[in-house]
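Two proteins, back to back. First:
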Amino acid sequence: MDNNHHGIVGGVDTHKDLHFVAIVDAHDRVLASSSFPTTRQSYKSMLNWMQSFGEVKRIGIECTGTYGAGLLRYLQQFDIEILEVTSPDKTDRRKRGKDDTIDAENAAHAAFPGIRTVTPKTRDGGGIITGSEGVQRNRHCSSPYRTANDPNEYYFCTRVNS
């Protein structure tokens, strides 16, 4: 299979100091996984690593409003579709266990068909609410996330891709 022709999809499980990344091919098969520090230079290295497998069609990122905010801002300057991936299915998580590499793979698998995803907020105000601003605006959506400002606060998604 020619990945450069079909493109690939990335998935990122974000953390404070290290992001875990997985790549799936045009048939939703995991090609590779790796981890990168949370620095601007590492974001560039991460994107270059992903591109070494083919054209990056989309990237699914867990927690774009917290530890993934810097990565989201960096990736938005490129012509790549960026999706925020919501929490994995609890049944699947119980079966496979808690593992950051598996979470990155799950993010890629969710981004591949666009399931369990929302559009991250952009600088022009489009997309979902990120950070504590969501606490003041909306408390009725079904998927709560902790905010970066206060781990006891939650925000909720407002726009879901159909």
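And the second protein:
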Amino acid sequence: MEIKKIRTLFMVAIIALGGVGIGYAMWTESVDIDVSATTGNLDFKIEQIQILDADGATITTNKVNDYEWDITVTDTYPGWMGYINILHRNAGTVSLKYESFQVLALIGPAALKNGYTITFYDPLDNPNVWGTLQEFTTKQYYWDDWSIPAAAITLIPGQGQWSKVSLDLNSNIVGFEDTVVTFTFRMWATQA
């Protein structure tokens, strides 16, 4: 009698397990979904710098990489002012906006670091941002520090834009004629 009970209990357990297995198999039907997504790429470059007017001095440029350039100024004098044009391009596939500008390295007498002023001009040739080379060693953000509207600093894919920039030496700085100053600057851009 005892064996009959064990056999019956064993059969009930096997049937119950089978039912659970069938129920689980029906409940866990799955669908595999295969999705792929492509994103654009961000590729901001400073392509070229043109010397517009050196006013008797010498301005030379050297490309460090796509985002950084060296500018060397020699033979300046108190009150000197020179102009350059910077061509930047969105070589990526998504719209970009300028993020920030910074002078990364300064080589030259300390007095000249505060004596040179760099000024950025808007497309209508109005000065809209300026500061000494020393001040620009702190990263400056276009929309926070300079309050330039996003539409004015946005580049669509493939678009290039020239930015006029002036360099001038304070007329009160004397005794540094024929002195060489080199600074490395970097511009950043981010997705618009």
